[in-house]
Design brief:
Elements (H helix, E strand, L loop, with lengths): L2 H13 L8 E9 L8 E9 L3 E7 L3 E12 L2 E6 L3 E3 L4 E4 L4 E8 L8 E10 L2 E12 L5 H5 L2
Parallel strand pairs: 1-10
Antiparallel strand pairs: 1-2, 2-7, 2-8, 3-6, 3-9, 4-5, 4-8, 9-10
The chain binds copper (II) ion (CU).
């Protein structure tokens, strides 16, 4: 094998998807249900990465716009803002939960009904490389905290 062909073969191997190496565990994913006409809601889950990584993006066929958000108490007011990424330190569980980090699903295509399952794709950056993690998040009932979620 010539050196050039060998180099090509090596590149081809590196570009193969390596699902066995996807080292971000996603547990207990869920999406908060919506009422008719509601245009946004949140997706929540716990992420744990074996190595230092970052959640840098997310997408879902259920929403026209998906952002990574943080909710924080500022001067006694709960505020929500988009963040560029959520750090996933090696071996530590990072919770996306109401009142904290969440995946914001906006421009919803339809009402999120309890019991449905919403596909969410997470984009994880690790060591300069990006990989996607497919999550299937069941919809839970809407609650009073939806009022909080609507404010942007
Ligand atoms: Cu939000």
């Amino acid at each position: 094998m010539s050196p050039i062909r060998l180099a090509r073969a090596t590149v081809a191997v590196l570009l193969l998807p390596l699902p066995a190496l996807a080292q971000v565990a996603v547990t207990d994913p869920w999406v908060r249900g919506t009422v008719a006409g509601q245009m946004a809601t949140g997706a929540f889950m716990t992420l744990k990465s074996a190595q230092d990584a970052r959640l840098v993006d997310a997408r879902s066929p259920a929403a026209g716009v998906v952002e990574i958000h943080e909710m924080k108490l500022e001067n006694d007011v709960m505020r929500m803002r988009a963040v560029a990424a959520i750090d996933l330190p090696a071996g530590r569980s990072v919770e996306l939960k109401p009142g904290g980090y969440h995946v914001m699903l906006m421009d919803l295509q339809r009402t999120m009904k309890e019991g449905e399952v919403v596909p969410v794709t997470l984009v994880i950056e690790r060591g300069g490389r990006r990989e996607t993690v497919e999550v299937r998040a069941p919809v839970r009932a809407p609650t009073a905290r939806n009022d909080l979620m609507k404010k942007h």
